[in-house]
Task: inverse folding
């Protein structure tokens, strides 16, 4: 439910009469749900998302647009806001999901395009029938806008049934530039601890610890239980916490499995569940024919620092400053910003890390052979010493291949370091 969260009672009542006479609502097929959604956007601040232009373009050029991403990243709200004239149905409602799965013809007759179908993973069989409907008027774009929080199953369904007809986009939590554009006064450390879930920024009164506790409970109950066939939710939660403790470290599945007391095959399965539901992101090492980093395993990161801080019991900016995990949390934050940067630039698969037996550079962006190197350092005042690994890797891969080397830190202003490297505030990553 999008409305009715604490503190909104009065405003809701006052605005309902305004909504009742909104002409926009007359065009919506399921007025009740859509009304709540629109209501929520009127009474709350809307934080503009970088992905909006891309979604609008996709809906103009493709018959189907699929938006994946972790629970509560804003998938439903973003579609409802961008496409107010589409119908809306959520398969979160068991009766709708059942009809979509068992009587897809009737379901699609009741919900004809243009239509937003929310939480589509609850009716995997619907996809084949979507295809038939889409193909009946193939030239018509933006017919179905689908959301779901299970990336891999959605991608599989799309490639099996809607290949060539659908564009898939992923929504992550708010990036630092998105937060700053909407709320320029936000302190960096606060944004790290609170994390990027839009609701926490649209409504600063929400207690983030309570938010994440309920987020975790819902995630485990709804997503993990139903989709991953996980036997023991408590073990899964411990597994998630163990992943939190290892954010920004090399992935060692055997270690993880041993710590939690589960079989390695279970660890494998659970890790891909966390990845598929947008909670964990794996980063691969950079390779090339001439020179390569020797390490083969990926690095593991939590997708959002808010959930990470909750898992690590870091509940305030002060606790963050005192935490021995501050460096790992910072690296997790910088990684999220670099993912945002690459997405905005329209690049996929460009981000890596570099590591051999002795040295590591946190992030490598491969721009078709030219490399940008990044070190994440929690410090406010980096020194030349913070650039030694950048220098080392530049020598290994060859000076001509390295376009730049940057220490991303908490400095307020950018400044040069040795050998042409520079220190950069995270807000200026671009
Ligand atoms: N861009 C945004 N600006 C302000 N609030 C937002 C924004 N996106 C989402 N929200 C709020 O965050 C919460 C979760 O959004 P929702 O769309 O339900 O996420 P999802 O569909 O990904 O689970 C809702 O309370 C919604 O109002
Ligand atoms: Mg939703």
Result:
């Amino acid at each position: 439910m999008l409305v009715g969260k604490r503190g909104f009672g009065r405003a809701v009542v006052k605005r309902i009469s305004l909504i009742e006479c909104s002409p926009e609502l007359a065009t919506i097929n399921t007025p009740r749900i859509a009304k709540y959604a629109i209501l929520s956007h009127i009474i709350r601040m809307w934080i503009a998302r970088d992905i909006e232009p891309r979604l609008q373009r996709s809906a103009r050029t493709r018959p189907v647009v699929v938006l994946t991403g972790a629970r509560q990243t804003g998938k439903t709200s973003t579609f409802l806001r961008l496409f107010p004239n589409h119908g809306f149905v959520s398969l979160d409602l068991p009766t709708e999901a059942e009809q979509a799965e068992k009587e897809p013809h009737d379901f699609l007759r009741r919900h004809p395009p243009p239509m937003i179908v929310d939480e589509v993973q609850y009716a995997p069989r619907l996809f084949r029938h979507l295809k038939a409907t889409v193909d009946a008027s193939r030239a018509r774009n933006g017919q179905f806008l689908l959301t779901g929080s299970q990336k891999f199953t959605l991608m599989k369904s799309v490639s099996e049934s809607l290949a060539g007809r659908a564009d898939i986009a992923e929504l992550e939590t708010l990036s630092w530039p998105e937060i700053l554009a909407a709320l320029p006064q936000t302190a960096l450390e606060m944004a790290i601890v609170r994390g990027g879930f839009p609701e926490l920024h649209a409504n600063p009164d929400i207690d983030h610890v309570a938010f994440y506790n309920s987020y975790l409970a819902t995630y485990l109950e709804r997503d993990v239980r139903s989709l991953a066939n996980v036997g023991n939710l408590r073990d899964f939660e411990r597994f998630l916490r163990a992943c939190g403790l290892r954010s920004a470290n090399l992935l060692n599945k055997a270690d993880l499995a041993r710590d939690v007391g589960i079989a390695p095959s279970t660890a494998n399965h659970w890790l891909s569940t966390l990845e598929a539901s947008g909670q964990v992101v794996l980063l691969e090492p950079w390779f090339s024919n001439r020179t390569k980093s020797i390490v083969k395993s990926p690095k593991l990161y939590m997708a959002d620092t808010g959930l990470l801080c909750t898992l690590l019991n870091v509940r305030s900016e002060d606790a963050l400053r005192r935490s021995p995990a501050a460096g790992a949390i910072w690296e997790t934050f910088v990684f999220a910003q670099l993912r945002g940067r690459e997405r905005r630039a329209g690049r996929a698969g460009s981000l890596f890390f570099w590591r051999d037996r002795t040295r590591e550079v946190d992030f490598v962006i491969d721009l078709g052979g030219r490399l940008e190197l990044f070190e994440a350092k929690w410090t406010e005042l980096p020194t030349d010493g913070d650039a030694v690994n950048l220098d080392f890797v530049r020598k290994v891969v060859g000076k001509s291949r390295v376009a730049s080397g940057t220490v991303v830190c908490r400095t307020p202003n950018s400044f040069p370091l040795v050998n042409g490297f520079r220190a950069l505030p995270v807000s200026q990553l671009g």
